[in-house]
Amino acid sequence: MTADVLSGTELAAALHARTARRAAGSAERGHPPRLVVVLATGEESTAWYVRSIARAAGRVGIDCTVVDVGAAATTEEIRAVLDRLAVDDAVHGIILQTPLPPGVEVADLVGSIPPGKDVDGAGPQSLGRLVCGWPGFAPATARAVVEVLDHAGHDLAGRHVVVVGRSTVVGKPLAHLLLDRDATVTVCHSRTKSLAEHTRTADVLVAAAGRIGLITADHVRPGAIVVDVGTNSTLDGRLVGDVDARTVPGVAGALTPVPGGVGPVTTALLLEHTVTAALAAAGPSATQEGP
């Protein structure tokens, strides 16, 4: 048995096309969408990722500005930038890119991003709204997992989904998104004993722990759907996931690739959220412009 490939490329292209139409509509209403990414690291891999977001934004009609505050920036300096962007009516989306400088904690800063501009759903108000089931922006990577499964036609209602990872970027918000879709959810983490005993019960297994090769064939029930959210860099510069790509495809029924699975959908959703924020700023009539 060879697992079906759940590529995110086609879905991302469809999302980009829809976002481009909506971005043009927002611009016509006097609110050209603008995204600002605040960068505070010298890591080339992070800079490359931010550049890729900017390129994708440009292709769909979103102005994306990168504010590089430097790898030595303090919490106060970064907060000052976020506070300025928060009250700038020309800015519709704000992303605080991690990692941050040593001693600077993301939890001390994301609250400075207003929920209406928090297009990656990173702030406490955005996460609180998600838990309560209220309107708001969910973390894009968590939402991307659900979108990939939807696009492949996998109904989540009544299915047992095991999520390996409990970050506020993926694991925790994803659990709530899955519950909203009537899935039964188990969240595992680094302290979970006998991890394979839990993961082998999953109809859908999501690997989001950030550990290369954590999920092997022994962790997967035959025929299960496996979503690999891992984005780990190897010493030779390759991007690999949390799933052992050598053994799991022979057991799983379907598997997302790395790269080319959840990643491109995440970027597409960040841009979609930015246009949604811009249309919200344009007024109630603009938010009813259609798909």
Notes on the structure:
This protein is α/β, with parallel strands linked by helices and 291 residues long. It folds into two domains: 21-121 and 264-277, 3-Layer(aba) Sandwich (Rossmann fold), CATH 3.40.50.10860; 140-263, NAD(P)-binding Rossmann-like Domain (Rossmann fold), CATH 3.40.50.720. Helix content is 36%, strand content 14%. The chain is built from eight helices and eleven strands. The protein has a six-stranded parallel beta sheet with strand order 1-11-8-7-5-6. A three-stranded parallel beta sheet has the order 3-2-4, with helices on both faces. It has a two-stranded antiparallel sheet with strand order 9-10. Strand 2, helix 2 and strand 3 form a beta-alpha-beta unit. The protein is globular, with a radius of gyration of 19 Å.
List keywords for this structure.
Rossmann fold; globular; 36% helix; 8 helices; three-stranded parallel sheet; 291 residues
Query: Pairing-aware structural class of the strands and helices?
Result: alpha/beta
First CA to last CA: what distance? 38 Å
Largest sheet at a glance? 6 strands, parallel
Q: What's the mean pLDDT score?
A: 95
Named at the architecture level, the CATH assignment of the largest domain is: 3-Layer(aba) Sandwich
- How much helical structure, as a percent, in the residues? 25-40%
What is this structure's SSE topology?
Layout: E1 4-5, H1 9-28, E2 34-39, H2 44-59, E3 63-68, H3 75-86, E4 93-96, H4 124-132, H5 140-151, E5 160-164, H6 171-180, E6 184-188, H7 195-199, E7 204-207, E8 225-228, E9 232-233, E10 239-240, E11 254-255, H8 262-282
Parallel strand pairs: 1-11, 2-3, 2-4, 5-6, 5-7, 7-8, 8-11
Antiparallel strand pairs: 9-10
Helix pairs in contact: 1-8, 5-6, 5-8
